[in-house]
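Below is one such protein, fold included:
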Amino acid sequence: MGQMKQKLQKSVSREDRISALEIKLKRAESMSDSESVEHMTKAERAELKGLLEKREVFEEQYDPLSFTQEHLEFKAMHNNVFIQLAKYCQQARDKRELKNERINVFFLDGPDGGTASALIETGGFQESQCYVANRHESSCESLRNILPDENVIHAAASEALNVAMPIVLDGVKGTSAGEIDVDVSLSSEKDGAFANIDFGAYYFDGCGGFVPHIIGMISAALVREDYDSSMPIAIGYSLLGGNKDVVEKELAISQALSTIASSRNMR
């Protein structure tokens, strides 16, 4: 458990440094050549390049065998809350629709498939209702032993869900990025694997406490041209990795979620 926390903390520190350097790079690119060199050194540019390359090497940090009993109980409660919220959305949708179709749920899960198993065994969800994205191929292989192959995608959540249009928040505070414009969408020329699937509930986890990533996932989930804003939807997330500025980070995410929801005429 201690080793996992250390890895998460390193990930948070790396993302904080990347964000700070990207801010400098963004400002440097808007300056003249002489001013740009003075604002951001070659060493800092090289450091940013190295950190970005390191980010692309994904190591599975989720090891359920190392969890304490307390953490296992917390995960069980976390899964139960997700189940209850998803069921609430199902019931609310059933009252508004004649077809009473089963809702789909999207979540991030580890190689043990803890959340998937809870949804199926405890929540009574069908395997076909559950969709997962994971950046680790080995974890995807394990998850495909529980869910249909087509319901498990080897990708980041934002890549799997895709984004239809960008929204920019000016000066979002309390994030690792600082007071800069945060693009809460990850626009792409190609639809993600789950871009056209209607989800009634989402849970985003494993972000290392890096706010822009969480906002990006929420944006990918909600910014869709064909989304029916009258339908209830549940959004859950966790702030793992580090405990610095947790309240400010949560407020920043809530602000982004409110802005996205407002832009889509959601209440």
User: Anything to note?
Assistant: The longest helix spans residues 2-29.
